Amino acid sequence: MDLNALLETTVVGLGYELVDVEMSPRGRTIRVFIDAPGRATGIDVEDCAKVSNQLTRVFEVENFDFDRLEISSPGLDRVVKKAEDFERFAGQEIQIKLRIPHGGRRNFQGELLGCKDGKVGLRLAKDDVELEFNNIEKARLVPRFD
Fold this sequence. Notes:
Layout: H1 3-13, E1 17-23, E2 29-35, H2 45-61, E3 68-72, H3 83-88, E4 93-102, E5 105-116, E6 119-123, E7 128-132, E8 136-141
Parallel strand pairs: 2-3
Antiparallel strand pairs: 1-2, 4-5, 4-8, 5-6, 6-7
Helix pairs in contact: 1-2
C-alpha cells in the first residue's frame, strides 16, 4: 500500500479528513494535515495526538521507515485540493496558481464561486472567470481578519 492510501485510510478511519501531506526531500519527515469538517472548533492537540499515535502504529506494522511524523491542522490559509473542497469553501477568498496560464495569467485571487463540471468559478474585482480544475497547481484560502 502506498503512503497516501495508507494515510487516507487511517485518517478517515479515525473520523478525520486528510487535507494534505508534505514530505521532506529525503522522505524522513512526514507532515500530515488533518481536519474535522463537521466540527466548528476544528482540530485540537488531542486530535493530533490521536492521529499521530495511530499512524505510528500503522507505520510499524507496514514497515514504513521515517524519522519524524508531524500532525497539524490545515490552518486558516489551508490548501484546497479536492473538487468537493472548492465547493465547500465557496464564498471565501482564495489564491489560485495555474500550471498553464489562462488569459495570460497564472495567479488569481478572488472570491471562490464553487466547482462544477470540472471548472472552478472565481469572482475577481472586474469580472468572473472559470478555471479548469485539472489546471490548478496550487490553491489556498486567504484568511480575513475583519
